[in-house]
Design brief:
The structure is a homodimer of 353-residue chains.
Chain A (H helix, E strand, L loop, with lengths): L8 E4 L10 H9 L4 E5 L8 H5 L7 E2 L2 H5 L5 E4 L13 H9 L3 E4 L9 H9 L4 E3 L20 E7 L6 H14 L4 E4 L3 H7 L13 H12 L5 E4 L11 H11 L3 E7 L17 H13 L5 E8 L5 H15 L3 E2 L1 H4 L2 H14 L1
Parallel strand pairs in A: 1-2, 1-4, 2-3, 4-5, 5-6, 7-9, 7-10, 8-9, 10-11, 11-12
């Protein structure tokens, strides 16, 4: 475990909470075992987490670190993830103040706290921990397709873009598997997943040559004493910036089943509307199946749609359209549960064994 | 330029020269502007570079650094590339001796000399340079497909595996273009290419999230004042360890034409015969064209076969078989020249403009 799962967290998301760049904050609130005691974002001050995000959590949103300190946090978690992953310079004074107030700092950005001598100095002075969860292990192997030989059934979430629900879907599938009595593991491959599960490697932070090898290592570590392994995917094979991470992870994980994740409101990759349209889901599914096949044959068994912001009628229509396009079961696991998707994974496992 | 192109090089390849792990040594000897004055490999002592490799270079192969010093080198170039890129511990004494003898050290491994305090200390004491060519820039962008808008015609070499001739083919195409009077640039994306061209970024050493962005930056830097840009590709889309690097580079480079590179003797990816067969070239070509298409449409216009070790009849037969399979011109650019391949690139440029 990178950190205590009972530590009380204050989440730092100034100007961004609930606004699309705060997926780390929201993922931790929804899924981490840690109690979240406050969120810092002056633009939403006075509301609760539930009022802003719909996640059933009554933690207050406060304007400043000083106010957050009233709720006795143990750590400040930097909860905003940018594409480039740099730390905004205006975050630094609050980070240092938090250390002076006795908090550990949890950071999922590409920029590491431990690389800032001033922050390191304060942390040392106040005997606080700097937890750069995206820092990969120093030594990693080159991928060699070893995960094709493990006993567990490996299911990977893949997607049409970043931030469409791959981590969420993997976590929900893992929960269903556990509830049904299977031995099962979620494998975290991104900063938020690591903050939730306590272990993992942020594959997008790994040196290119070792991305598949790092994924392979994560899978091998859990694949001998579990029935199912649910690996969190990253990015999309058609994203002009992240496709390499997606493919490295795909070939390292060696899945036998995949679940296709998509945000039903998204038409282009990237939130800034790059000129790259998302292909039809059925086309994307063929693409993932073809690329996986060179290392291990695998099928996409279902579709996970993020329908947040749609009313129930719109959501149901989007799910029906996805099924009509792909011939596969489709659900929004946050809204309607992941049982149907897990049934599809289970059916594929039956076919393979 | 990372280093003087007139510096005299001694190349260090103990036990490996000409044996398959020395592609960095051989690439530098064949293509770098620097004079190579000696190669260190006691297992080939007394022969010349030409006798071992066929490359027309009369530099002697010597048993030790002491002997190499007779030829007045300015730098020791570590010339053996392993898949994992670690520096063998037995290389360290020779590296330190070379520094004590007044040599700079050129290193293309994943392990950096500058990260070894003892080596750094010696280099500082003797005022020598440690040139870790695989070290990427500290700050890189996330790829965004920007290279789709540049004036130069972009040609990328792609391949069936690592070490099949992608760098060589890009360099040969660049030479033909220059000889025909075009403004042209080779873009180095690997350690050997950087040692040869003097600039570039080793994309396989870049953090996953920034591989496409690093490639994009390299292309944008040269794409406004050249007719052609020949980008060195890496790995293969079907390699279980390196596929992510290949795809990140592909989407960052935004090629309009590709040349498929293959070692005619290779049946499986990886020199250690992984259980992953290389698909037919025609199938691989479809795969690369399909994956490129999501960012920018591009066609494979020719096949570059590495036929080293085959006699001329075998080589010609392999080229004919490649053409029969793919319907494309095929040549071994080292053996038979790259004019035919450049003609195919030129024809594609005519179609696109």
């Amino acid at each position: 475990m990178y950190y205590s799962q009972s530590a009380r967290l204050a989440i730092y998301a100034p100007g961004e909470f609930g606004k699309g760049q705060s997926k780390t904050a929201e993922g931790v609130i929804r899924y981490a075992p840690n109690p979240v005691v406050a969120v810092i974002d002056s633009t939403e001050e006075g509301r609760t987490v539930e009022q802003v995000t719909g996640i059933p959590c009554q933690a207050p949103i406060v304007a400043s670190l000083t106010e957050a300190m009233q709720y006795s946090p143990d750590a400040l978690l930097l909860g905003t993830a940018w594409a480039e992953g740099h730390m905004p310079s205006q975050w630094k004074p609050d980070t240092i103040d938090a250390i002076k107030n006795g908090l550990d700092i949890i950071n999922g950005l590409h920029d590491f706290l431990a690389d800032d001598p001033e922050i390191v100095n304060y942390a040392s002075l106040h005997n606080r921990k700097l937890l750069d969860v995206r820092r990969p292990p120093d030594v990693l192997p080159v991928g060699s397709g070893k995960a094709i030989d493990v006993p567990a059934f490996i299911c990977l979430t893949v997607g049409s873009d970043g931030s469409v629900g791959k981590m969420t879907t993997s976590l929900e599938l893992n929960s269903v598997a556990r509830a049904r009595g299977y031995k099962t593991r979620f494998v975290a491959t991104g900063q938020t997943g690591i903050m939730i599960d306590g272990v993992g490697i942020a594959i997008d932070r790994v040196i290119g040559d070792f991305m598949a090898g790092a994924t392979e290592r994560l899978v091998l570590e859990v694949a001998y004493d579990n029935d199912f392994v649910f690996v969190e995917g990253q990015g999309s094979l058609t994203h002009p910036g992240w496709s390499g991470v997606t493919l490295g992870l795909l070939h390292g994980a060696c899945p036998q089943a995949m679940v296709m994740c998509h945000d039903a409101k998204r038409t282009h990759v990237g939130k800034d509307k790059l000129p790259f349209p998302i292909p039809k889901l059925s086309e994307l599914i063929s693409l993932y199946e073809m690329m996986t096949n060179y290392v291990r044959p695998a099928k996409v068994v279902g579709v996970s749609l993020n329908t947040s912001g749609m009313d129930e009628k719109q959501a149901r229509a989007a799910l029906s359209a996805a099924t009509a396009d792909t011939g596969l079961p489709a659900t929004d696991p946050v809204r309607f549960g992941a049982d149907e998707l897990f049934d599809a994974v289970l059916a594929m496992r039956g076919k393979k064994s």
